Each structure stands twice: as structure tokens, then as C-alpha cells.
User: Fold this.
Amino acid sequence: MAEHAWIEEFPASISVCDANGIIIAMNAHVAKAFEKQGGNKLIGTNLMDCHPEPARTRLKKLMESRQTNTYTTERNGVKKLVHQAPWTQNGQYAGYVEIIIELPQTMPHFKRG
Assistant:
């Protein structure tokens, strides 16, 4: 996976599951965030097992509909942008990618065009 080595130290959490919800990849940021739950040992486990209700039901519906889901969240004063989107391989649905980016407290917004 040398051609994708940049993902490991990219300053965001990146995780990937297959079409059945099995975690197939996570970068160092995700592994650290879920260290108490096993970190990289979560690869090969079902994503649904990592989510309590009602998040599990929302995630299941999202994966069934193959829709993109984007929102912001805040915990302990840290704002984050969460983007969940289906990924494809050879044009076929292959699962979901989740990217979580920590946001600064203040952030400029530009309207272009």
C-alpha cells in the first residue's frame, strides 16, 4: 500500500468498510481514537458492532440507501466535520468511507462564483 502511504499521517481520521460493513482499513488517527476498543485489531470486524443505538440503525439505513452523509459535531469544545460516502470499485458499490476532520474554532467561509 506504499502508493497510499500519505493516508497514514494525513491530519484526519479515515476509515473504510466493505459492502457488508466489515472494516477493511483505518489510518493511524482512527486507530488511536479507538485504541481502547482495539485500534487496528478492529480491522476485520463489523462496523455495526462499534455503534450503539440509535447510531447503528442510522448507519444501516445509510448503507442500504448508499447515500452520502455529511454533518458537524462537537465534543469537549472540539468541532469536527464528518463525511460518510459510498465508494465503488470497477463501478460497483464496495462499501463506505468515513473521513473526520477536526475544525478550527473559527473558520473563514468564502462564496465564489
